[in-house]
Amino acid sequence: MNSNISTGSTIKLNEASLSRLPNNIRVPNYDRHSLVNGIVHIGVGGFHRAHQALYLDNYLQQTHDREWGICGVGLLEFDRRMRDALHSQDCLYTLVERSTEGDWARVIGSITRYLFAPDNRARVIDALADPHCRIVTLTITEAGYYYIEGSGEFDAHHPTIQHDLQHPHEPIGVYGFLTAALNKRRQQGLPPFTVLSCDNLQGNGNIARKMLTAFAQMQNPELGNWISDRVTFPNCMVDRITPATTAADLKMVAEQFQIDDAFPVVAEPFLQWVVEDNFCAGRPDLESVGVQMTDDVHPYEMMKIRLLNASHLLIGYLGTLAGYTYVHEVMADPAIRQAVDRLMAEVTPTLQPVPGIDLDAYKQTLIQRFANPKIQDRLPRLCLNSAAKMPKFILGSLRDALQQDGAIEYMSLTIAAWFRYLKGQDDQGNAIEIDDPMADILTQRARSGGSDPRPLLGISEIFGDLSRSPRFVETVGNYLRSLDEFGAKGTLAR
């Protein structure tokens, strides 16, 4: 992304320039040089910077506790741009909250260091093994856990895992780094850190525990047992719609706020974080900045994944097929908006009671959030890596609904719309780019199957044994035929 921003009227963001920024921009009021990196975050992207880093920035603004600065880590070649941006700005960046009421900007200072693993892998291991590091947080996407959906087992044969088992001192994947650092801590008589997954997985802490322990056991059974006994993995639910940063966002930040920022982040006003209170090495007083600490995250994460994330998939596929680009455009289409309402109604009976939450009000809030025109959330972001998202966001509800003999129409429509989307063309004949690690097998089966969903439903690592349900297969097949014949809008009209 090339910003082409003239620097004449803008102020290049860095520590020295903070005092020159316009008065309406909130900046860190704490001494960033006094912070200790008590948290190492792996996978610094838009979401972490709009969510966990913001909570910590609020915490540092209002307390004298300096133990909880963040050291960011990027593991992937893709993270090079984040490295360059943060290094050029003393790890500062602009967060803009956008809604129809207006735009508010602030500079976040809680990340004080950023390590790009391909530059120096040993330095990342050292940061994780540092005695000051007490929590490691993760946003590595659903696909980053090497979790086989159909069986729930660890994908031990993945090339990244095999590489890290064979090269324990030169890891490339998250488990290789965590294991190397925990092994170092154990050898030095240091306590372990807490591993806090902040990804959209139901039971994200349980999954992180199972996968990391499995990896460590394969590398060193004694270390695996130590991790199993000593490391805690709280489950947590995170929520804030955060689209990918675009060139238009850089321009908006320059024009509206006079800040020349190489990688700002834009988010909606809504913000939620519910965390299981299970930390083995201490934690900041997150309650003081609005984090909900609980004994059981499960009902909250189930609510969010089955209502928000599932709706995102329906919006993504139907909206793309209908020729839309942005989420708010899709929500302005009454037929798709009604389909989202009905999908949520269908999923609701599969949810558990959620303490302190009015589900009807929550669903209304979701509709308003999706319709926010200032967020400019693009549909390809919602459709990215669908093979990993579909089992987590839709299929759990679907299994429960089948067991309850409940309605499955709109869940089946979502799956059929994905199958139609995988053929790589929208209803107007424009090409769709399928961005998914499983794209080859998915697109091949989508095209060879035509209007028959069974070739795709037979991919057991996604669908498990669901293809044995005649009612489900028939419902998906009916919708797929309708989408092929009448398109997304025509199907909804019928």
UniProtKB/TrEMBL annotation:
<dbReference type="InterPro" id="IPR000669">
    <property type="entry name" value="Mannitol_DH"/>
</dbReference>
<keyword id="KW-0520">NAD</keyword>
<dbReference type="InterPro" id="IPR050988">
    <property type="entry name" value="Mannitol_DH/Oxidoreductase"/>
</dbReference>
<dbReference type="InterPro" id="IPR013118">
    <property type="entry name" value="Mannitol_DH_C"/>
</dbReference>
<keyword id="KW-0560">Oxidoreductase</keyword>
<dbReference type="GO" id="GO:0008926">
    <property type="term" value="F:mannitol-1-phosphate 5-dehydrogenase activity"/>
</dbReference>
<feature type="domain" description="Mannitol dehydrogenase C-terminal">
    <location>
        <begin position="296"/>
        <end position="482"/>
    </location>
</feature>
<dbReference type="GO" id="GO:0046029">
    <property type="term" value="F:mannitol dehydrogenase activity"/>
</dbReference>
<dbReference type="InterPro" id="IPR036291">
    <property type="entry name" value="NAD(P)-bd_dom_sf"/>
</dbReference>
<protein>
    <recommendedName>
        <fullName>Mannitol-1-phosphate 5-dehydrogenase</fullName>
        <ecNumber>1.1.1.17</ecNumber>
    </recommendedName>
</protein>
<comment type="similarity">
    <text>Belongs to the mannitol dehydrogenase family. UxuB subfamily.</text>
</comment>
<dbReference type="Pfam" id="PF01232">
    <property type="entry name" value="Mannitol_dh"/>
</dbReference>
<dbReference type="InterPro" id="IPR023027">
    <property type="entry name" value="Mannitol_DH_CS"/>
</dbReference>
<dbReference type="InterPro" id="IPR013328">
    <property type="entry name" value="6PGD_dom2"/>
</dbReference>
<dbReference type="InterPro" id="IPR013131">
    <property type="entry name" value="Mannitol_DH_N"/>
</dbReference>
<dbReference type="GO" id="GO:0019594">
    <property type="term" value="P:mannitol metabolic process"/>
</dbReference>
<dbReference type="Pfam" id="PF08125">
    <property type="entry name" value="Mannitol_dh_C"/>
</dbReference>
<feature type="domain" description="Mannitol dehydrogenase N-terminal">
    <location>
        <begin position="38"/>
        <end position="287"/>
    </location>
</feature>
<dbReference type="InterPro" id="IPR008927">
    <property type="entry name" value="6-PGluconate_DH-like_C_sf"/>
</dbReference>
